[in-house]
Specification:
Elements (H helix, E strand, L loop, with lengths): L1 H5 L4 H7 L5 E7 L5 H14 L4 E6 L9 E3 L5 E3 L1 E3 L2 H5 L8 E4 L8 H11 L3 E7 L11 H7 L2 E5 L1 E2 L6 E2 L1 E4 L15 E4 L18
Parallel strand pairs: 1-7, 1-8, 2-5, 2-6, 6-7
Antiparallel strand pairs: 3-4, 9-10, 11-12
The site of zinc ion has 8 residues, from loops.
Length: 208
């Protein structure tokens, strides 16, 4: 049963199961684990099904392009950059059927009630985001979104040190800020064994 929901290959079944109401899907994992790829794949399929799709990203994330969500592998999808949950809601109309959200960890806590309401109104809401910060701590509001979601997908990267399943985003630059926007220039995927929480990480810069 879990496998059935792991990948989005049955819109009809999911719809029937949800008894005509909307629902929340959350995609979580470390950096480079394929969250954005999976989100873009689901959004493309919804568009092929001629559903009215609207996609958001937090304004804070200006990594690859301003108006699109993008995966590390180069896939893109149009999106609307927003600074707050309230601003996001102002772009959603009654006939919107699918709401996509990337980098959910950078949204304010109002996103939790907002997506609950959207799902109760009949919309399919798909949110991708980091479940842990660079210290390996739960990255709000993702834990709360995981609790209220009907469907959860955990994605994994490959540890760049040893090739195992990676569950952590290792920061490779000196910064204690929780939000430090970057990609391969500042982070790498690591497994539990190879991950070093940042406070212990000075050795990283001395040829760890
Ligand atoms: P996320 O949104 O989780 O950060 P993306 O969907 O943007 O991930 O990117 C996933 C892609 O990143 C993979 O398909 C692969 O091409 C690339 N990639 C780069 N480094 C790694 C890694 N260490 N493990 C897995 N994929 C990686
Ligand atoms: Zn490893």
């Amino acid at each position: 049963m879990v496998e059935e929901f792991a990948f989005d290959n049955s819109e009809e079944r999911r719809r029937a199961r949800a008894n005509g109401t909307g629902w929340i899907e959350v995609i979580v994992g470390s950096m480079f684990s394929g969250k954005s790829e999976e989100l873009i794949r689901r959004l493309n399929r919804a568009r092929i099904a001629r559903q009215k799709v609207v996609v958001f990203k937090p304004q804070i994330d200006a990594r690859y392009s301003k108006k699109e969500i993008a995966s590390h592998s180069g896939q893109k999808h149009d999106s609307i950059p927003v600074s707050t949950t309230a601003e996001m809601l102002s772009h959603i109309s009654a006939d919107t059927q699918v709401v996509g959200i990337d980098e959910g960890q950078f949204f304010d806590m109002e996103i939790i009630d907002a997506v609950n309401r959207l799902a109760s109104e009949g919309k399919r809401v798909i949110i991708a985001g980091l479940d842990q910060d660079f210290m390996g701590k739960p990255f709000e509001p993702m834990p709360q979104l995981l609790s209220i979601a009907e469907f959860i997908t955990k994605t994994h990267a490959i540890c760049v040190k040893c090739g195992s399943t990676a569950n952590y985003s290792q920061r490779t630059v000196d910064s204690e800020a929780r939000v430090e926007v970057g990609a391969a220039d500042k982070y790498e995927a690591r497994c539990r064994k190879c991950f070093i929480p940042h406070s212990d990480a000075p050795t990283l810069h001395e040829g760890e």
